[in-house]
Amino acid sequence: MANxxxxxxxxLIIGRSDELENHQRRRQRLAxxxxxxxISVLTYDTVRRMAERGETxxxxxxxxxxxxxxxxxxxxxxxGMFAYVGPEHLELSASAEQSLRDDRYEIDAWNSGRMLCFxxxxxxxxxxxxxxxxKDMVARSVDQARPSE
Length: 149
Description:
three-stranded mixed β-sheet, 40% helix
């Protein structure tokens, strides 16, 4: 994983808007903290209003763990992630795994250690699978080349 870093953008969702309305210094501290650490600091109410106005995009939501990350949800397809990050560094919640399976990600292959490099959803064929595919293609070519009786 050290050679294939994820680009992670953090969002900290804190409390409700009314908890900050009359606390100017607290709002300034949180804004400053967010800018210094490149973290979006929002309240639950702000996120809700953004969603109601259609200002949000589906996201793959991850949280840091001692091993790497845990994918909490996969509302958006995580582009290229499974080609570089293996199950030893990325855990999937049950709902995220089901979403990925519904989107035709070959999660069983990924869980067995095969990276999903083909169309970001499918593993590259093993040498044995590749040989079988070539034999099948040759057999079909021979069958098509035979004159029909």
